[in-house]
Amino acid sequence: MTRIALTGAAGNVGRELVAAVEDGDFDDHEVDAFTHSEHEDIESELLEVTDPDDVHEKLAGYDVVFHLAGASEPDTEWDLALETNVEGTKHVLDAAVEHDVDRVVFASSNHAVGTYNAADDDPEHMTLDHAEPVCGDAPPSPDSFYGVSKVACEGLTSFYANRHDLEIVNLRIGWYMTPDDLRDVVAEAEPERERFARATWLSPHDCRDVFLKSATADLPYSPVTVNAISQNSERYFTLTETMRTLGYEPLDDAAETLAE
Asked: Residue 121: pLDDT band by 50, 70, 90 thresholds?
């Protein structure tokens, strides 16, 4: 049985993965949740990713790490992004090497490549003109200090993959929302933000699938860097690489969901 450590379990994506475990989606795996603080609705162990000793102690004995912990808002200031995202990710990678962890699945972000097809300086505004396709391993083009921190983390994961033969999957995650949240955002959004939501949506089902496949797929190379969005008909982030390398099987489309 594969042992998986889930950092950042109290975030939106982390909570979806906790729910997936509770629903039996990870029945062939033992998943332990880690959070920065205590939460009444999540059974977890505390983990401070900015403390290398704590990370080293807590991540011993795992086969795979889903690393989601860190600042997650596009408007995150640089000092916080550096400490929690960049330095925290280095601590996780160091622990993975020291404990012979097989694979780290890193929660990168669409904001690492966020200036492609951007309408303006708002990281959640998409052009209303023709949108160019953005492949899974497109060169970084961050839209914020948060995006810069994710680019730096992808640099770290690449270094550890090449230097230490660590298996790495970088998921450039889109905008995770429940269907109801998607409808609420679109109902109140200006056109540029609505198009961004329709293009980058990651549904709960597809979120579960891409993480499960990231833990179990036989990787053809490392690091693997791919997009993690749903099969939205209005997407510009390509999914060919995600499907081919991970066996990802997305089911949901923002346009179809909004039409229901």
From this structure: very high
Closest listed residue to residue 255, CA positions, set 179, 148, 188, 189: 179
Q: What is the pLDDT of residues 207-241, one digit of tens each?
A: 999 999 999 999 999 999 999 999 999 999 999 99
Report d(CA 84, CA 150) in Å as an integer. 11
In angstroms, the first-to-last Cα distance of the chain is: 40
Cα–Cα distance between 84 and 33 in angstroms, integer? 18
Give the catalytic positions in this structure: 146
Upstream peptide bond of 223 is cis (omega within 30 degrees of 0): yes
Q: Beta strands 103-109 and 167-173: pairing type?
A: parallel
Domains of the chain: 2-259 (3.40.50.720)
Report d(CA 34, CA 168) in Å as an integer: 20
Range list of β-strands (E), 88-233 = 103-109, 167-173, 175-176, 201-202, 224-228
Distance CA 200, CA 139 (A): 18
Strand partners, 107: 171
Can you give the pTM of this predicted structure?
0.97
Beta pairing partners, 6: 33, 66
At which residue do the structure tokens 């209303």 appear? 128
